[in-house]
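Case study 2.
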Amino acid sequence: MLVHVQAGHGPEGTGRHLMALPDHRQYELLNSGVAFCFSNGTVGECPCGDSTTGDWGLGGCPPFEGRNPRLEVHGETRFGEVGGPHFARFLADFVGDGPAILLQSNTASLEARTFGNGLVCLGQSPRRVATTTAIGGAAMVPPGPGFDLSARFGVARRGWRYYQMAFRMPEGHCHPGAVGFTNAVAVLWD
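Prediction:
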């Protein structure tokens, strides 16, 4: 995956080549995807005025004491593969406790739109592909091995898909009870 992206074959659905961006603060290579849509002002300003800077900004708009909700992908996103020792997991941190929804889109934008208390970079018509419960501020999809994620997520062909996790913001934030979002992740289903 990283060799593919580093060779210049990045996510096409963003409208711009992600790896051609001049500022590393706009993207981060992960072991199974490319993280983007950070709250550090590179794609837009957080609606509650709580945009962050530097490495602390490599996540969504911060609801918890300046900690950015972060989505990462670990493992391999192999098309049609069920489980195995390297199966993919979507992991989110600093999303509070309660329901969390993983959203998927076939396109993405490097210009975020505000929604609730967060920034959204998914393209038109994102769909819910998984619902989970965050405990201790962390959420994981799927909960364990044995899932064909390409089938579960409705991925009918190989290619790039884009993900963000939505979660309920805590009381006391600028819009209590509104939805917040992690950063986005581009994943190549190979």
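The radius of gyration is 15 Å.
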